[in-house]
């Protein structure tokens, strides 16, 4: 999203947390590779830690980081600050600074965001589902101050197209295997237990899991050993720049998000749009916000969440019906052309421009 903004805003600047060793480091090759960025733009790291392992920290709810970031941002006197942090919004409103807030969670009556909704300095909220938008409106946010915009994908990351066998050779996966691949975090809420149950039901298929923090990777590997699942392979985290080869190596891409997750009904998974970009058939949980993008039998097959048998039936159907598999994959690929970060940035900036104009008039 920041890369897309940088293409459209002359004086765009991304603030992120960093450590004392990264002061003045800016946008470097490590950062670009980690996030699969093709372009170099202004990045400022707030020295919040002594040393961090990843280019970015796992959390941005730390009050010290938020205060330091707000002080720096206000010093630069920007026209608008765009943030995902409610703490940053709160601090900026106290300073009388216009802010656009992107929020992906419901707001409750005892939550910090509730008091932010009616503040004149909050020019608007960007969210990823109409259900979330309705939640904010019911709690007092004016209708014209909310924009619904799904997550998106950087299509250039998946070019050039990779043939399946060549992708498998590149990352050392077996050429003749039937491979079902999952990409993303390894939390139970993402459907990992469901994948294990499916793998036990389909021993002749190979299940490849890409992603996860180190603690989650170790936990999942232990569970695989306990259950003696010899057809499940954990790849772990790969840089965003290398993800494409894994997706192209798959026969089917799976998105088994659990309905028990508190955000199940409003999730707009990044990996969904990445899946669509590589022209592979997708089997996903039939959850409300996912179903605003995916349609069963048209651009995907949808399965009942947390139901291994439902997923098994869908995947066997795709292996037995290659025409169906190629048809839904092609349809998804055509439709994802509209779900790019550039298009999303255009939506957000058009919305922000209108909201800023009204803010200044008052």
Distance between the termini: 29 Å
Main sheet overview: 6 strands, parallel
Strand pairing plus helix content: what structural class?
Answer: alpha/beta
CATH class category name of the largest domain: Alpha Beta
Q: So, the CATH homologous superfamily of the largest domain?
A: Glycogen Phosphorylase B
Which labels suit this protein?
Rossmann fold; 4-stranded parallel β-sheet; alpha/beta; 39% helix; 362 residues
Summarize this structure briefly.
This protein has 362 residues and is of the alpha/beta class. 39% of the residues lie in helices and 15% in strands.
Fold topology:
Layout lengths: L1 H7 L5 E6 L9 H7 L7 E7 L13 H13 L5 E3 L2 H9 L4 E4 L19 E6 L2 H9 L7 E3 L15 H8 L7 E5 L8 H10 L4 E5 L3 H14 L4 E5 L6 H6 L3 E4 L14 H8 L4 E4 L15 E3 L4 H13 L1 H15 L4 H21 L1
Parallel strand pairs: 1-2, 3-4, 4-5, 5-6, 7-8, 7-10, 8-9, 10-11, 11-12
Descriptive account of the structure:
With 362 residues, the protein is α/β, with parallel strands linked by helices. The chain folds into two domains: 172 residues, Glycogen Phosphorylase B (Rossmann fold); 182 residues, 3-Layer(aba) Sandwich (Rossmann fold). The strands form three sheets. A six-stranded parallel β-sheet has the order 9-8-7-10-11-12, sandwiched between helices. Strands 3-4-5-6 form a four-stranded parallel β-sheet, sandwiched between helices. Helix 2 links the parallel strand 1 and strand 2. Helix 1 packs across helix 13 and helix 3 packs across helix 4. It is globular and about 65 Å long. The mean pLDDT is 93.
